[in-house]
Amino acid sequence: MEYTAHPRRPLGPEAATIRTQVQVPLQFADGYATTAHVTTFRGLADGQEHLAWAFGDPADSGLPLVRVHSECLTGDVFGSARCDCGPQLREAVERIATSGGVLLYLRQEGRGIGLYNKLDAYALQDAGLDTYEANTALGFAEDARDYTVAAQMLAALGVTRLDLLTNNPDKAGQLRELGVAVRRTVPTGVFASESNLRYLHAKAEHTQHTLALPVGPGSAVLAG
Ligand SMILES: Nc1nc2c(ncn2[C@@H]2O[C@H](COP(=O)(O)OP(=O)(O)OP(=O)(O)O)[C@@H](O)[C@H]2O)c(=O)[nH]1
Ligand SMILES: [Zn+2]
């Protein structure tokens, strides 16, 4: 009889462990108040300080809603309208605070190339390149993010199955390859404006983000 080797299960990422868990009170604009359980980790693959913001006990809630959000200092903190990161972050925190689940805040500024390089890329965009072309012109991958740390953090929190809040098919694809059972993706809102329309079109064209957008850059502004 012919010998057939069993296909090997790909090895998952090394385990990370929980380092600290603290409670952070939050109050939203409408007055709703809740508590986030903020977790730090040991043993994350890239040595960065990534955070989990959990609402309720994500391991207990069956299929928690999870957002894997990459850092964008300009949008998340300063309200830059060049991208949709700030409104997406606020939407995610409000939705997950309501439904229960976890937001992973990954320190992957500029799709993993860092803040200064992202600002260099902005300068190239102002000279006509789109966001992905600007990355490659600087010698980086179009999108340099690797979600291994997200899989490590979810495992440390006891979350193995989830619904993922994203329009980015690469996030769901990478997480599934890393052994995370993503049941389905839940689309975020589309936060289009005159200032970020080119950025959003580039996401839909280069990385197949599922975004319902007006026909082309420069066309009419979508209501938030
Ligand atoms: N290199 C580069 N990065 C950018 C630019 N604009 C925003 N970013 C980064 O893009 C990332 C956006 O990440 P996410 O909010 O996770 O969004 P996403 O991958 O587009 O997918 P969603 O889950 O659908 O929101 C952040 O790290 C931003 O800093 C840009 O022009 N150039
Ligand atoms: Zn941004």
TrEMBL record:
It catalyses: GTP + 4 H2O = 2,5-diamino-6-hydroxy-4-(5-phosphoribosylamino)-pyrimidine + formate + 2 phosphate + 3 H(+). In the N-terminal section; belongs to the DHBP synthase family. Coiled coil: none annotated. Its EC number is 3.5.4.25. The keyword Hydrolase applies. Catalyzes the conversion of GTP to 2,5-diamino-6-ribosylamino-4(3H)-pyrimidinone 5'-phosphate (DARP), formate and pyrophosphate. Zn(2+) binds at C72, C83, C85. The active site is at D143, R145. GO terms for biological process: riboflavin biosynthetic process. The lineage of its organism: Bacteria, Bacillati, Actinomycetota, Actinomycetes, Propionibacteriales. This is GTP cyclohydrolase-2. Binds 1 zinc ion per subunit. It comes from the Bacteria. Residues 34-187 form the GTP cyclohydrolase II domain. The keyword Metal-binding applies. Keywords: GTP-binding, Hydrolase, Metal-binding, Nucleotide-binding, Riboflavin biosynthesis, Zinc. Pathway: Cofactor biosynthesis; riboflavin biosynthesis; 5-amino-6-(D-ribitylamino)uracil from GTP: step 1/4. Its cofactor is Zn(2+). One of its GO terms (molecular function) is GTP binding. CDD domains: GTP_cyclohydro2 (cd00641). GO terms for cellular component: cytosol. It comes from Nocardioides gansuensis.
